[in-house]
Amino acid sequence: MKGFFLTIAVAVGVVVSAQTKTIEVINPSAMERKDELVVLKRTWIKRKLPALKEGQYLLVTDKKVPQLVQFDDLDGDGIWDEAVLLLNLAPKQKRVLSVAAGDRPAAIKAVVRAYVRQKHRLPDNSFGDNVVTDTMPYNNIPTDFSKQQLPPYLTEGPAWENDKVGFRKYFDIRNANDIWGKRVSNMVLDEVGAHPGNSYHNLSDWGMDILKVGKSLGAGALALRTKVNGKDSLIRFGRNVQQVVYRQLSSGPLRSVFEIQYKNWQYLLDAMPINVTEQISIWGGQYFFENKVTFSNLPANASLVTGTIDFYSKQEHKINRSGIAGLYTYDQQSENKDQLGLGILTAASDVKGWGHISAQNTDVTNVFTLDMKVQAGRPMVYRYYVGWEVTDNAFATQQGFEKMITAEAEKFAKPLVIR
């Protein structure tokens, strides 16, 4: 399969402002950091570089070498809000970058390293162009594959990937996340699932669907824990929501971002509806996706729950170090019957507890859970990690996956300093 390529702007005719400033990007940790996401917010850059005008772009150089920069308009107003780039940093390194305003982005050809898409099935059973907004039918039920070969959406809903791993979300009442294990670095999810004769449950040159989801939350999907008749109850997202709206915010080449809005979720029949948004990001070089979950209003004493499967691994390992907490499992738990590590990390101050649901008579089952504190208007941030031995032999042992997740906890605890 061919990779996606994108040429950023053109090679000539870029008008650069005479004003040039410097910014510092500092690695505060004692470990090497590869493909670290650097986010330069427009409001912050404007203070550093007053010459930047509406309609202009940011030109970033490192010792006169142009850097690939992606410009994301996250609020949809037609003006970029964040300029992002990926940097490698040595332990404790400080990189000094020069920034200037230009009428076009720097001309750099780049391999796409992050991608998100949502595609609808057409009457001829092909799939149409990527859609940037979509609304799920009310209480949309899963596809019955005994009656039809292809679902209404390619791979049953939005899919996102980078050069290491891919994911999908079921755009129906299950609202679970699944994992694409990858053997290649190029973007493949426009082709996966498009032809019923090529089952993504079988190992292919690109990889395969490696997760059994069932009635679990799969790979870090969401549920709400609240009281029902005085007892704790876990309610999955997706059912009895007036509108579930998908919106693509950015799609590569470095970072992809989308959001799912749950508008007027009647999570209990006699309760006030609530509104929730999850904003999912993935960027090149990483083995995780990041989710920012925001409640506009919130039931009393409720908590946000995410989790990972327990079908093949019956022991979870808790993490709580350097202000970061979470859990991971490691076992022969891929659908290819080989080694797979799965993990979740978030701020320790936001963790309410850990749990395990194995009962078969509940709406959500077969899941190791992480309960998180939430408050209206404040994003709750967590990351979900995947280490499949076929992607990287470093994950062929539990020690290899533990090394990665431990390093990720330190990096999560010590974000880059930008000044």
TrEMBL record:
Recorded superkingdom: Bacteria
InterPro entries, per database record: DUF4861
Source organism: Niabella pedocola
One Pfam family per UniProt: DUF4861
Protein's UniProt name: DUF4861 domain-containing protein
